[in-house]
């Protein structure tokens, strides 16, 4: 069987962030509640000149060549921060990037699971059509509202993955397990910009779904935890993944190895925050870039979760061609260039953006030097520009 998986991967987030200690102090909370209890150090703040379309386009722009754009025959966009109830965000990105108009483009929604659904669809497509390529996008802006219990788990960004045969990063195995149930742990009605969440309930469901999918995977594929060199998790905040790992790590003869790899996998998430569909894949980037012990051929487990709810556990092997150094250099350069906002500046930026009530809006774009930006809205149409 042809090897299929992630050939290229890119990440983009806002050039602005806040410090979680400063947020805790402003909210009259102990900083340890955010730094240790949640495992978060910083949080990306998305300006009004960026939305999921521009975030995804900027992420993909970092990895795609002209040859890639000509070869891509499918664009799949996983998001729960949709910009339209009808038209997909994928169509906008396809046009902004100049991807072949002969490609299929569509959007997938199932809370934070959409990116994984898109990745698995892409893998199956390449197995049938090994000469083609698929662009998978996972982009979101996590919002719970100012001075709410969920405020400390906000953030945003985008991951772009080019899926192809003979991949140079991660070979996706044809092994996966699922678990789903109709529950109300997190949702966002059409009339709200901010999500509604039952935090404690969602935490419990997340761990339950992880155990369900992990146990099914073990049973179906006759494996054990020590077959895996590392595990990557959906990380709306990094402590959540650690709780899930701790629920099974006693099954391992080498628990310290898995725990050390987890620390590598949460470095960037702790500095960016929650990006919903992209959170698992930012964690994967963090693992690949920061682990000094992963080797070619090592098996990595991946747990994806989307509230409402859908869980999936699947596996991949590090490609023989993988080199972590360019990925680490790019990530650290981007994160180091960000500007720290005061809490007052963050609050002002948070409340900017396109109003749900409609109407024309023109943004001041002078300070956003990203390759792709959102200029505003005119006659109910979003206006995008390439710098």
UniProtKB/TrEMBL annotation:
It holds the Pfam family HMG_CoA_synt_C. Residues 3-165 form the Hydroxymethylglutaryl-coenzyme A synthase N-terminal domain. Its EC number is 2.3.3.10. Keywords: Acyltransferase, Transferase. InterPro entries: HMG_CoA_synt_C_dom, HMG_CoA_synth_N, HMG_CoA_synthase_prok, Thiolase-like. The keyword Glycoprotein does not apply. GO terms for molecular function: hydroxymethylglutaryl-CoA synthase activity. It comes from the Bacteria. Residues 176-248, 263-350 form the Hydroxymethylglutaryl-coenzyme A synthase C-terminal domain. NCBIfam families: HMG-CoA-S_prok (TIGR01835). PANTHER family: 3-HYDROXY-3-METHYLGLUTARYL COENZYME A SYNTHASE, HYDROXYMETHYLGLUTARYL-COA SYNTHASE. Belongs to the thiolase-like superfamily. HMG-CoA synthase family. This is Hydroxymethylglutaryl-CoA synthase. It comes from Lentilactobacillus raoultii.
């Amino acid at each position: 069987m042809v090897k299929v998986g992630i050939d290229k991967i890119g990440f983009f987030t806002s050039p602005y962030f806040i410090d979680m200690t400063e947020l805790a102090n402003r909210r009259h909370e102990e900083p340890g509640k955010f730094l240790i209890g949640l495992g978060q150090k910083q949080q990306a703040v998305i300006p009004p000149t960026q939305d999921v379309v521009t975030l995804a386009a900027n992420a993909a722009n970092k990895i795609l060549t002209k040859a890639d754009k000509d070869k891509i025959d499918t664009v799949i966009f996983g998001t729960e921060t949709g910009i339209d109830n009808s038209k997909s965000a994928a169509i906008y990105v396809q046009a902004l990037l100049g991807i072949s108009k002969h490609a299929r483009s569509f959007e997938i929604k199932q809370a934070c699971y959409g990116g994984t659904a898109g990745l698995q669809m892409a893998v199956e497509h390449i197995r049938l059509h090994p000469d083609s390529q698929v662009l998978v996008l996972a982009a979101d802006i996590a919002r719970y509202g100012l001075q709410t219990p969920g405020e400390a788990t906000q953030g945003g960004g985008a991951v772009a993955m080019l899926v192809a045969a003979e991949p140079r990063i991660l070979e996706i195995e044809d092994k996966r397990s699922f678990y789903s149930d109709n529950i109300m742990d997190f949702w966002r009605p059409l009339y709200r910009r901010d999500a509604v969440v039952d935090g404690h309930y969602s935490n419990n469901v997340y761990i339950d779904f992880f155990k369900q999918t992990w146990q099914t995977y073990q049973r179906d594929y006759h494996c054990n935890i020590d077959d895996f060199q590392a595990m990557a998790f959906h990380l709306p905040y990094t402590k959540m993944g650690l709780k899930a790992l701790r629920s099974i790590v006693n099954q391992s003869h080498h628990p310290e190895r898995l725990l050390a790899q987890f620390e590598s996998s949460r470095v960037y998430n702790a500095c960016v925050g929650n990006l919903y569909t992209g959170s698992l894949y930012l964690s994967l980037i963090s693992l690949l870039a920061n682990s000094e012990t992963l080797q070619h051929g090592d098996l990595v487990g991946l747990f994806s979760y989307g509230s409402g709810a859908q869980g999936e556990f699947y596996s991949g092997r590090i490609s023989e061609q993988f080199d972590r150094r360019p990925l680490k250099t790019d990530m650290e350069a981007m994160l180091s260039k960000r500007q720290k906002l005061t809490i007052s500046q963050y609050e002002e930026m948070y409340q900017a953006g396109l109003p749900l009530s409609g109407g024309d809006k023109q943004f001041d774009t002078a300070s956003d030097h990203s390759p792709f930006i959102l200029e505003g809205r005119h006659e109910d149409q979003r206006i995008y520009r390439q710098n």
